[in-house]
Specification:
This protein has 20 helices and 23 strands. It has 655 residues and is an alpha+beta fold. The longest helix has 32 residues.
Length: 655
């Protein structure tokens, strides 16, 4: 019995055996059988009562190995006949093996391995040869003398004295992993059967979805264009982007390189052009076919984007049918559509974490709706606290929120809708006769407007409300970062010596400069017309500030408004003077201007600013919406008449 010896160190050969990967070893043995033109390959495990694997056998009906060729096949590393051959000799199948190292992989199945092969000899006889190897001497293989037999041809690989990790072959998902590997080959070669532990591998029985995409490729040069075949599995079989020939023979497996949370898939890129480039496929990312790989990945991304949309739509429809979905009907306004889009994205992302009990699931979905409606920025912390999401789902949720930016959109559209509602409410307060004559300037109108200062200009922020000129001075200095020169501040007094109480002091920075603009607003009850007495009041405030050296700063401009529903005739004439901006009744040196303004002018200005958004939102606030806003936001200070209008006592707390 001759012994063939591989000229290599045993430790190097065992590294090639990859003993920790018995599934990969079975895959290699099956590919060897298919390269030998087998039409039936059977993998059988001998399992003991503890579910431990005692031995492994792989049997095929291929053409076998003639005795005269055994020494050449088993004595070297590399140099396989498959390196130069593109297809198998008779059936013209694409070949998988090329490296001449496949036999070493058998040591991942057992420490003792033998090949029993039956093949035709050169003179036509059918002969049987047995090749044996042991892991202690991985460089040496014993080859028996040929024995004449009657046939049929084929090879049986037997591995005994199980290797350390061979128990993985008995795991439930092994057959599925093998199915995913050989799916494209089996689909292209329906005459081939691969049987694992008595069960035939059939991709159609285990995949959840499959799709194919033709990829345009200019370098196809008369060949069929590359075809991307995507197969999805119910369990994780390890994501793979397999480069195959047109018949589905896997030639290389670069990383898929895409994000597809929640999907288990194998992608096969089938193209005969890979056969000619086989030696360069490990460096394909740097080769001329790098663009083809990127095209495949982009197609994969599009595929899973569509699948994700289908999955989400299916989930939403199921929730609707089960009465769990917290919305009814279709959204009437764009803002409502945006909110619902965010709900759908987030709810379907965490769907697997929702409670199984229908009532609990319904409650959770309603809670999610309320958070999105009122505080979308606080959504992520709440979800993390409720569900303790694993890292992968945390990243997916963050990706959804970052991609859509819906949180900011909802806040912005909600703010615009609230402002439009408030303007409608303000009209009621200052123009509705039954209400306007009872509205109190300081206790009601003032308290409402100090929380709605955007009415006087979006850039303004509230600095002082209902405080003395002394408080105005302190805030003025603090805003400028100044300290009084000589210790405590001197009191600020009007010309008649009285302490002035300013309704509102607003401030804003001048864009692009270090200067600031301060706005003093003196509010009058809607029933009070602005006449010379009211104008004299703001002039006295302006004079007190302008005359006091403590206020002096060239970087600050001052505007003084007196606001009510109507202006007396003489004031109206001053406000319409042709040499000044509308509403300006006086201009003083040092950037000081005095204004008499009506609510109709201020509200018109606000509506002009919101006109674009109002049209896009299709939001036309009705009276009940305006009153509901006042009750919800300003209920503690809103006039009693407003609180009563259109309010059903039996629905307290409901919009």
């Amino acid at each position: 019995m001759p012994v063939v010896h591989i000229e290599a160190k045993p430790d190097h050969l065992l590294r090639l055996a990859r003993q920790k990967d018995p599934v990969g070893a079975v895959v290699e043995m099956i590919w060897n059988a298919l390269d030998a033109e087998a039409c039936r390959v059977s993998v059988d495990l001998e399992v003991n009562e503890l579910n431990g694997v005692e031995s492994v056998s792989i049997t095929d009906d291929g053409h076998g190995i003639p005795n005269a060729s055994c020494a050449g096949y088993f004595s070297g590393l590399g140099g396989s006949w498959k390196t130069t051959a593109k297809v198998s000799p008779h059936l013209k199948r694409g070949l998988h093996g090329r490296s001449g190292q496949g036999r070493l992989r058998a040591f991942a199945l057992g420490e003792q391995v033998r090949w029993i092969t039956v093949a035709p000899a050169a003179d036509g006889r059918i002969e049987r040869t047995v090749i044996t190897g042991v892991v202690d001497r991985p460089a040496d293989f014993d080859i028996s003398d040929p024995e004449d037999v009657a046939g049929p041809c084929g090879t049986r690989v037997e591995a005994s004295v199980p290797a350390d990790f061979v128990g993985r072959l008995s795991q439930e998902d092994t057959a599925q992993q093998l199915t995913s590997t050989f799916a494209p080959f089996l689909a292209s070669n329906p005459d081939v059967r691969i049987i694992y532990q008595g069960t035939e591998l059939d991709p159609a029985t285990v995949w959840t979805d499959t799709a194919e995409y033709a990829l345009p490729w200019l370098d196809a040069a008369g060949q069929a264009p590359p075809l991307l075949r995507v197969i999805e599995w119910p369990k994780n079989v390890g994501r793979v982007l397999a480069l195959c020939d047109a018949n589905g023979v896997v030639l290389d497996e670069p990383t898929p390189g895409i994000q597809a949370p929640g999907y288990h898939f194998t992608a096969y890129l089938l193209w005969d052009g890979f056969v000619e480039r086989r030696s360069n496929l490990p460096l394909a990312e740097l080769d001329e076919i790098a663009d083809l790989l990127e095209s495949a990945r982009e197609t994969l991304r599009g595929h899973f984007k569509r699948r994700d949309q289908e999955r989400r739509a299916r989930l939403i429809q199921e929730w609707k049918c089960e009465g769990l979905y917290p919305y009814s009907g279709e959204p009437e306004l764009p803002a409502q559509a945006v909110e619902r889009q965010m709900f759908d994205e987030v709810a379907t992302t965490i769907a697997r974490r929702l409670p199984g009990v229908p009532q609990s699931k319904k409650t959770t979905l309603r809670l999610l709706k309320e958070i999105i409606s009122h505080d979308p920025s606080g959504l992520y912390p709440v979800l993390d606290e409720l569900f303790r999401l694993p890292q992968s789902e945390q990243e997916e949720l963050k990706r959804v929120l970052q991609r859509t930016s819906l949180s900011e959109v909802i806040k912005a559209t909600g703010q615009v809708s609230d402002r439009l509602d408030f303007l409608a409410a303000l009209k009621t307060l200052v123009f509705e006769p039954e209400i306007s004559r009872t509205v109190k300037e300081r206790a009601e109108l003032h308290k409402i407007l100090e929380r709605e200062t955007w009415v006087f200009g979006d850039a303004y922020a509230l600095m002082v409300s209902d405080q003395s000129l002394d408080a105005v001075l302190r805030r003025h200095l603090r805003e400028l970062g100044r300290e009084p020169d000589d210790g405590p501040l001197d009191p600020v007094r009007r010309e008649d010596g009285r302490t002035g109480i300013v309704d509102l002091l607003l401030g804003r920075a001048h864009r692009g400069s270090s200067g600031r603009a301060h706005l003093v607003v003196e509010l009058k009850a809607p029933k009070v017309k602005v006449g010379q007495v009211e104008v004299a009041q703001i002039k006295s405030y302006a004079e007190a500030i302008v005359s006091d050296p403590q206020f002096r700063d060239a970087r600050v401009s001052w505007d003084f408004w007196v606001v009510s529903t109507e202006l007396e005739k003489t004031v109206r004439r001053d406000a319409g003077a042709p040499n000044r901006p509308p509403g300006c009744i006086a201009e003083w040196e040092g950037g000081v201007r005095l204004w008499a303004r009506t609510w109709s002018e201020i509200i018109d200005d606000c509506e002009d600013r919101l006109h674009f958004y109002r049209d896009r939102l299709n939001h036309d606030p009705a009276t009940e919406h305006a009153l509901e806003y006042l009750r919800r936001v300003h209920g503690s200070v809103a006039p009693g008449t407003v609180m009563e209008m259109g309010h059903d006592p039996g629905s307290e707390g409901s919009p």
